[in-house]
Prior knowledge:
Oligomer: single chain
Low-confidence stretches: none
Helix content: 40-55%
Number of strands: 10
Distance between the termini: 61 Å
Amino acid sequence: MTEATPKAAALRALHRRRSPGDPLVLPGPWDAASARVFAEAGFPALATPSAGIAACLGYEDGRTPADEMFAAVARIVRSVDVPVSADIEGGYGIAPKELVERLLETGAVGCNLEDSEDGTLKDPQAHADWLAEVRHAAADRVFVNARIDTFIRGGSDPKKAAEQAIERAALYVAAGADCVYPIGAPVDVLPLLRSGIQGPINVHGTVTGGPSPAELGELGATRITFGPQLQRAAAQALGDIAAGLTR
Length: 247
């Protein structure tokens, strides 16, 4: 099995031994230009958002063809020197070994993988078995972030969603996931998630308003990502500039 690259080892190391108020903050580039902006700002790693890339390529979220997503990730990776993790949604129906090979061909050393499809949660044990195959194929070359969709797909009861998230997290961590991402988790359940989940937890941060990354870290977040928020904020800023040009 091929050994981990220096970038893969660096990304893994960034998640270790973090103090509660110092989570890893990973902005999400949607193209090469935005990736260079974030890298030049001093961020030690980046995490692409599938929805942001979809918007950049002219697709609805979740509708980007696999070939175009991998090509977009490759352009981002080669534009910066820092490690890049890629949101590759639910894996596009590609077998684990091929999925890992295609990811590594882009130069990315991490991935985000979802546990719902077409708005429905996947069977947790079946998904854990699939994650185990991904881990076996990747060995230490890929940092696997397992997204847990119970808060956005499992109903309106946050406590029940948290209990389901903890159960799924245990399966995914046992399968080899390096980090879990209970997307959409309300801030007030983060301490419950932290107490029930082993290993790093990814939390969705906010660009304006809401708790700061340090505050989210105190509540249990190991790392903070932003989904497509940065791309949308940039699009809004460009819209404001465009409106000014018409006056």
